[in-house]
Amino acid sequence: MLKMVYTLMAILSAVSVSTPAVHAQTSTKAQPASTTSIFTVVPMPSNPYGFDGLRNDLDSVSGSSASDIWAVGQRVIHYDGSAWTAFPAPQIDGEAGASAGNQLTGVADISPDNVWAVGNLNVDADNPNQLIEHYDGTSWSVSPGPSFSAGETQPSLASVTALSASDVWAAGTVTVDDLAFFPLLEHFDGTSWTATAVGLSDTGMFSVSADATNDVWAVGTGGSALHFNGKAWNLLTIPIPGNGENALFSVTALAPNNVWAVGFYVEESNEARPRIPLIEHWNGISWQIIPSPNPGGSNNSNELFGVTAVSAKDIYAYGYSFVISSGDSNTLVMHWDGTSWTVVSSPDPKYKSILNDGLSAGTVLPTGDLWLVGGESIFRSLVLHATVQ
Predict the structure, then answer these.
(1) pLDDT tens digits, residue range 319-347?
(2) Considering its fold, how many domains does the chain have in total?
(3) Confidence of residue 360 (pLDDT cuts 50, 70, 90)
(4) Residues of the domain holding 51
(5) Is 1 inside any structural domain?
(6) Omega of the bond prior to 274 within 30 degrees of 0, cis?
(7) Is 118 within the bounds of a domain?
(8) 45-61: pLDDT as tens digits
């Protein structure tokens, strides 16, 4: 499914998850979605730089304005305020085969002539490596990243965020000797990238977000959360329900006392499904589990891959809901109104006869334009738009 950034499933299966390290037990009662959706499906351009019908899913989206938005994944597309256009980018051609390929997993749009994207080369192959690309207003080019030991150390990147042109963070995982993996945080100071590997074994990072130079958060496997205070990265304890697998796939920092993270957890250690949505909140003192809907209960497997804030009382979390009996996968969108989380209706287009939809990332512009991206299976890009202000 979506969001299998680099070796996501390999990492999750390698982690022996236990409780405790951005909210009380998640509600398992299904919450009906409203009948009318605020979202519309936006037509996508064909992919002349890859293969239509093969690996066109999107993993990240970011915009500097309502007329300058980038979405990346197995392809790269740009929105100029009126239409989405496919763009060429080095190494990204949509060709991934069954298990190997190249992929951009995060994008940060600082301005029309300054955009960063991160990802990975040779996903699930014998020689994986990280990929950093930059857009200068004309074209995308590969940017040199930090140096790593050839062969023995394998870096991979999942997310990128920018506070300014000289303060950019990327998060991911570094694997050493194919035996152990650790959180990887990389920083761009306006001139070059430097890397820090945090000594937290069997843990990888999936998302990074910042609201200030001294308030940067990263989350990942095993319900782990790292915080950068301007000087060093520190591990903070997060309460995790259940005794099975869990992960936090996305984090968004609004203020030092208002940070949200989303993902999933499993009740029992010997179960792979059903997966239950997990929403956590940092109030400036501690992380707490916030109750959230679990559509379909034990009949569905639900995961949240992203969280986007319009304001402190207007937040969207999204991912997919997998119907275990049929194998169908639907988009899943939840909304926070300042008091509680509820499911909101979202479109579920089919790719031919296949219903395998999911949402991976989102961004909101000051104009009130909310964009969510993902895929219809892996074969076609899925982009939803709503006006929320």
Answers:
(1) 999 999 999 999 999 999 999 999 999 99
(2) 1
(3) very high
(4) 8-387
(5) no
(6) yes
(7) yes
(8) 988 887 665 678 999 99
